[in-house]
Amino acid sequence: MPPTVADSGMVPHYSPPRQDGTRPGTYWFNTARPTAGTGWDLEVVAYHEAVPGHHLQLSRSRACTELPEMQRQRYLTVYSEGWGLYAEQLGEEMGLYSGTEALLGATTAGLLRAARLVIDTGLHAFGWSRGQALDFFVSHVPMPPQFLAAEVDRYIAWPGQALAYLTGKLEILRDREEAQRRLGSSFSLPGFHAALLDSGSLPIPVLHQSIDRWRTSA
What we know:
There is one protein chain. The chain is an all-alpha fold. The chain has one domain (3-217). The chain contains eleven helices and two strands, in the order H-E-E-H-H-H-H-H-H-H-H-H-H. The chain has helices at residues 3-6, 42-49, 54-63, 69-73, 77-93, 100-125, 130-140, 145-157, 161-183, 189-197, 204-217; strands at 13-15, 26-28. Helix 6 (100-125) packs across helix 9 and helix 7 crosses helix 8 (145-157). The chain starts with a helix and ends with a helix. 30% of the residues are buried.
C-alpha cells in the first residue's frame, strides 16, 4: 500500500481491474502497521481477497464480455462477499493453508463473521448501544479491541452490510449441496464454480435460478 494508506491502519484489501484493461487487479498489503490480515489470519485474508477469492471472481467477470455491463461491473455485497467467505472455506478444502496457525487464523475470521451477525442485529433491531456491541465483540472474538471498535462503527454506519457476507456464503453452500444431491456422480465442482462466477454479480434469488438452469443442463 502507499505509505499514506498503510499508516492509517488500512487492512489488506483488493481493488478490481479496470474494465478497459488499463489497470490490473491488485491485492494491497499493509507492510507498515500490523492490522487484521497481517498475523495468523494472513492466509485466510489473502484467499478471500486474491485467489480463489475476489481477484479470481472479479477478473473472471470482467472477461465475460457477453454479459450485460451491469452484471460485469456492479458489486452486490451478498454475492461478492459471499464468494469471498466461500473462498476461505474452499482454501481449506483444497489444502491451501500452510499449517495449524493459518487454520487458527481462519477460525478467528469465522468467529468475527458469526459475531457480527449478532452485533448488527443487536444494534439495528434491538437497540444495543455502541458499548454493548463492543463488549460482546471483545468477549467473543480474539482480535485487538481497537480493530473491533472500528468494526462496530462500520456496522452502525452501514446497516446490514456485514450480515450480507455470511448470508451470501450460506446461500452458495446451499446451492452447492443441492446440486450435489441432485446430480450425484455427475456433479462437477469446477462446473458449479463456473456457473456461479460466469453469471456476473446477481441478487441471490436470481443466482439460484441461474444455478438451477446449469444443474438441469449438466
